[in-house]
Predict the structure.
Amino acid sequence: MRSQKPTLLHATRAGERGAALITAVLLSLMLLAAGGILILTSTMTSLTARDSTAEMQAYYGAEAGVSRVLQVLRGNIDSAPTGGTKATFHNVLCSRELWTSISGNEISVTDDDSVRFKVISIADPDNTDLVTPLKKCEQATYKPDRLRIRVLGMGPGNSQKKMEVVVNNHTLDYAVNAVVTAPNESGNPFPFDLGDSNQVTTSGVDFSGSGATLPPFAISGTDYNSVNNVIDGCDPDGSNCGNGPNVTPGNPEVLVPGNTPSFLQSVESARSFLYDPEKGMMQTAKNQGRYFTTGDAAKASPGGLGAAHEVFTFVDGDLVIGPGNPSGQGTLVVTGTLTLNGNFNWNGVIMVLGAGKVYRSGGGTGSVYGAMFIANFAPTGASTDKFGQPVFDMSGGGNSKLQYSSDAVNMAKGVGGHSVKAVREY
């Protein structure tokens, strides 16, 4: 019987010598790769964070540039030189070196100059004359409604952000197509009186000298004959004619959809214009702290009626301007009766919307340069409601002058600052 000698264990593992070393090397390589990936990820994260921070700083630099331009436009920063040319939209486009030192220069936002901005361009997006974009500046009547402002923001590490903003010239936007606009859908005659001969002067010739001329009165078709008779120096029915008042041009204009301001197209639109909870005139006045329930409260307010600076004033009730030598400017909204008493002066737009009644009383001399809107309607009601009977009675004494002024109208529309309509990176 053959016997087999036992094989030693180490002899059977002779071919596995060095396996532990290979395993350790492989594990080390895996750990090294994982460590390398971790280091690379950390480095990339750090670089991304740094670049992101730099880009964010450049973005804030661009925002600072936009804010600075808006401050100049709104008069919060003096034009250069101080007390020099006002930064109107016209001057910003046509004489930009006169209004601010930031035009075309790199302006530092931080003490170490790491964040800066530069105004790249300011243009009129409505001016399609790309060959000679400043050609309109030679026209006295050129008054741009919008500006497109492009600003370059610069941050650390050559980071850059470009921002574009479109700014509207007017916070309030409505058409002015006549010196006095007064719709009447009541079926009753419009109580319209210009007083004795030469007592009231009404002119649609632009007091600002632009050369534009508007109709003196824009009224409903049913009131055309009676209003025209009064302008011609007669009674409303055409009798007792004499010397007519000073009215230029000599005929009123009939309101039609094409020449009626959007907020007077219907009673529903007029109510929305006044009382819309987000963008109505009443809410806008409340936002500016310029809403008053009495005329006396408005006159006693810190801004008054705007004698020193144009303001937006909303009087939810009656208002008497005068007597004495009061003056005001800006946009005035009166929901009750407006009485012009004695000496007074107003530059801007007057809206008597609600009761729709305007009276002249007392002696003295008064003037309104700008435009006036008069409409009679209830604050609430059906959407099918029609405009009631307005009143325009200037027979109460003294001499008065009503004249269109494009500058006064533009100033009135701009109370509350310019409105930003669009912002984007590009």
Q: What stands out?
A: The chain has two domains: 58-129+141-169, 180-413. The radius of gyration is 36 Å. The longest helix spans residues 19-73.
